[in-house]
Specification:
- This protein is α+β, with helices and mostly antiparallel strands.
- It has 7 helices and 5 strands.
- A hairpin with a 5-residue loop joins strand 4 and strand 5.
């Protein structure tokens, strides 16, 4: 396990030291994948990746913050790669044409799988992908003239499946993490909240979150 932790750190360092190509030379979701795993290390590449990650949950519309299906990870036709080997290859590749030549696949072949990773990411090494939760929250409460407490809420929760597929489901106020500024309380005081909250844990298990009010 220590070797995998070290590998994640090195992969993130590779991004922060610009050993990878410039941001425009590879899919931004590859950068998001690496930077998220490494705890968003300080670098121009990771700053850009995080900005895109947050922009996707900034209405409208609210999108999956990591779209792993846009990061081709099938690193070799000859043998199955270990999880951190794939991250290394993503971090160290140098450009679109060289990427296609070194993998021996055409661009079309790289995008055969839609809405999930193009390799098996069920390994626990990729739990940081499945740790991402998105909450879109709309909540209103007030007491009417007759003294009745009226509450209206629409909360949906976005989660990632075993292969990085993203899905929305209905949720409840109780499911919203305590790190959110959402605090409806138990009284019937007037309260209004609208925002999108996302949280995650990196490869080392360090917790992080962002919230966008609108």
């Amino acid at each position: 396990m220590n070797s995998l932790r070290a590998a994640a750190a090195v992969a993130a360092t590779a991004v922060s030291l610009s050993l990878a190509a410039p941001v425009a030379a590879y899919p931004v979701d590859c950068a998001i994948l690496l930077c998220l795993a490494g705890g968003w290390p300080a670098s121009a590449e990771c700053a850009h990746a995080r900005a895109v990650f947050i922009a996707r949950i900034t209405p409208w519309p609210v999108e999956p913050p990591l779209q792993i299906w846009n990061c081709p990870m099938r690193a070799s036709l000859n043998r199955e790669k270990a999880p951190m080997e794939r991250l290394f290859e993503i971090a160290l590749r140098e450009g679109g044409e060289q990427l296609h030549e070194s993998w021996g696949e055409s661009p079309a072949e790289l995008y055969l799988v839609q809405d999930r990773a193009d390799v098996d990411i069920s390994d626990p090494a990729y739990d940081f992908v499945r740790s991402i939760h998105v909450f879109q929250i709309e909540y209103r409460r007030h007491r009417n003239r007759d003294g009745d407490c009226n509450t209206w809420s629409t909360i949906r929760e976005g989660t990632y499946g075993e292969q990085g597929d993203f899905a929305w489901a209905r949720s409840t106020p109780a499911r919203v993490p305590s790190a959110s500024a959402f605090r409806p309380g138990t009284s019937c005081s007037d309260y209004w909240f609208r925002g999108v909250f996302v949280d995650w844990t990196d490869y080392e298990g360090t917790y992080g979150f962002e919230e966008v009010r609108y």
